[in-house]
Amino acid sequence: MSSPGQPYDPDRTIPDVTSVPWPSPATDDAPGPAGHSDPSHRAGRARRTGRERRTGCGCGVAAGVMVLVVLVGLVGGIVWLRANEYIQPTPLEPRCRLSIGDATTVLDPEQAHYAGIIVGRAVARGLPPRAGSIAMATAYQESGIRNLDYGDRDSVGLFQQRPSQGWGSRDQILDPYYATDAFYTGLVKVDGWQTGDITTVAQTVQRSGHPEAYRKHEQNARTIASVLSGQTPAGVTCGYQSPSAADPSGLATSMRRALGVTAKVSADGTTLTATGTSDEQAWAIASHAVVNANTSGVSTVTLGDRQWQWAAGQLPEWTTVTATGGARTVTVTFLAPSGSATPRA
To answer: Which of 108, 156, 200, 246 would be a feasible disulfide site paired with 297, CB 3.0-4.6 Å?
Structure first.
């Protein structure tokens, strides 16, 4: 190709560059003119090397930051998707499955624990399962069934209740038992709540800025409420790899606070028993034991001739066994001696 500004000459002679010696790689001691070592040459090369180092692209740091941003976004996305029921815990994660026929929902252990409190308080107050359905749909939407210590403006807790709106103090609302009772107190004041549209009733209690948002949670809320209120026997199972240390006293406390029942712990701390006043209450007690099995170190839950038994990493089905207790007596056994676990609120 011709030089800039020169016409192209197809007959011009192209120099033979194969005979031109290539320079050897420069070193700090490369000779200057006349073969002598040139200090200014070495200094100039040092300045160039320094500039090259200082003006590097920083690709490693940028890539690391990008990976961190992606990971944070991914974790946040998974939390949001799970809270909004777009995804559920995977088979590799600790989880609880609640089923009525073909209707099934899956919760992680934290969600299942709080669901046990929410539905349990309806049972303790003598409210029908519909109350639990409305409360569960609300907690799904407001917090993802988690006891959040933050929210929009001053909203906190399972139902994102606001101290400034008269729901109680911040500390009170962060007590899941208090928050749930406060919700039910507001619920039973709504005319026609027993038969009205769940979303409409929930909105009347909550006065949310997104009044239709509860509707998408109705089916799962009904499933959870039916199972944990004892209307659907043997409807829950939980799977996890390694349970906590045995904590029969903590489980007994949870049953008393959530369901209003008295459970007895054996002298050696290996067995807990509680008796329901109806078949439904008995199954509510048994289901409560299962959804808290992970944090209480539960081995088996038996009611009549039905038994749930923990198996590492599996979702055990309820099996038929020889009945040893009363028809409404729930017997819970534990995996290890108690004494090291702390009751969960």
So the answer is: 246
